[in-house]
Amino acid sequence: MNSSLKVDNELNLSRYYSFECHIPTILLVSQAENLVASFFPNKLLELDHFLKDPILNICDLKEIHSEINLTVPDPILLSNLHDGLEAQSAKKRKMEDGTGEDKVAGTKVFIMPSGMMKSNTKLVDLIEKVKPEIRTLIEKCNTVKMWVQLLIPRIEDGNNFGVSIQEETVAELRTVEGEAASYLDQISGYYITRAKLVSKIAKYPHVEDYRRTVTEIDEKKYISLKVIVSELRNQYVTLHDMILKNIDKIKKPRSSNAEALY
Q: Which keywords has UniProt assigned to this entry (predicted)?
């Protein structure tokens, strides 16, 4: 009597935990299907509207330029003619001995005259609008990818055409997820590159090319941000189209073995 009661309790407990484990899966399926059917098309329309925003359609790129408040210092005059000759002689001896390289020391910078050097605020504002869109795509792709992976049945002989479609869908979602993550790397890379150039300007304020290079990378980043938004929209279009066209095979890769999906 006690043994049979113990078995019944174990069965009930097993069913309870089985039901509890299926709840997250059911919620994931519902969420993923809603993403494909509703969220993806709405988001691509939203991004298409964003691409028409005036902030992404500036014709004259001079409007996004940021002033670099680092003045060119007055030239240093040698107090003694021999100072210059001695410096040249020392440099010549260094080069002949092979103990040094022909490097320009530059200006020592202890503090910025006008305080902290600001970033290009126009680009920063635009970046802060684009970054949430990148993050959203990564998160939604991850959800849909997990949904498709859970629908992949166990490995069996026979017709695996539907399974191959599922695997291709997962691969495409993983690719889109990786590309979106690379956009975040591009943004951090832009800040690092620009910071190094501004440091160069502070050290070598007389070199105009460094100042022009900052302007060039700002313009390049602006164009890149518009391309990123366009790519985000296109990826939503591609994923929505691909999944809807193959939705039957994705949900039921083997019609005769539907029970093997769960």
A: Acetylation, Proteasome
Cα(176)–Cα(134) distance, integer angstroms: 11
Compute the Cα dihedral for 114, 117, 120, 121 and give only its sign: negative
Q: How high does pLDDT run on average in the chain?
A: 81
Mention every residue, 6+ apart, whose C-beta is less than 8 A from residue 203. Answer: 106, 107, 109
Separation of alpha carbons 143 and 148, rounded Å = 9
Domain over 34-73+108-261 is classified CATH 1.20.120.180: yes
Whole-angstrom distance, CA of residue 106 vs CA of residue 103: 9
Where do the domains of the chain lie?
Answer: 34-73+108-261
Q: 140-182: per-residue pLDDT in tens?
A: 999 999 999 999 888 776 677 888 999 999 999 999 999 999 9
> Which residue do the tokens 């202890």 mark?
110
Q: Which of 172, 132, 140 is nearest to 39 (CA)?
A: 140
pLDDT attached to residue 122 = 95
Q: What's CA 205's distance to the chain center, in Å? A: 33
Per-residue pLDDT of 24-49, as tens digits, reads: 677 888 899 999 999 999 999 999 99
Residue 122: closest CA among 70, 71, 67, 69: 67
